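Lines hold sequence, tokenised fold; shown next:
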Amino acid sequence: MKTRKVRKFKINLIKIKKVDIIIVTIISILICTLILLKKVGNAITPILMDYAEAKATNTATLMITQAVNNEVFKVMNVEDIFITDKDDSGKIKSVDFNPITVNKLLNLITNYVQEYIEKIESGDIDSLGVSDTIFSNYDMKKLKKGIIYEIPSGVVFNNSLFANLGPKIPVKMSLVSDVSSDIKTNVTNYGINNALIEVIVHVEVSIQVILPFASKNVKAQTNIPIALKMVQGDVPNLYYPTSVN
């Protein structure tokens, strides 16, 4: 009887050891898999984020341009931003900006740009009222879900043969802070005693690029020419062109 008990004990001990080995093996495989996935993720995330950042920046810039061209010019005449001071004979003494009109213009641009980007973010593109050709490079079904682009995971191999292979990784963007805008000018000489004034709106917006496993804050900025004004000065009776040796 004692011998039988010892055998049973040995058999149970062997079974317990086998179970422990299996459990330890499974846990080790899981840990190794997680470590491997983390390393692979750290390696490919910058590549995918570069693609996503470029697409989100292009989309934000497109929305800035469309908001200014489609909305702002409908409600105000940008020529009103100039104040021209003339003397009694009608000659131009100075050209300046109307601060009230400039502030109104910048507020309109800021509000419309923010509205456009928020609608792209939420997928409400039908209410933008822009031409379908504007979104010709986008998947409209995805865009209505707030997805501005899908990156093929094969791009991480940096090989054209694999560029379109693998599962698609969706890219979204979100407005991080308020849109900022400012007026800039370029003044160049034109002809004899004339000046050409170009008015440019600089718009900057901070957006968040969102991937399923990472996100990044980036800035999209662009310069949009909105007005061009010729200022004619007095033409001198005598003009001596500068000779070039």
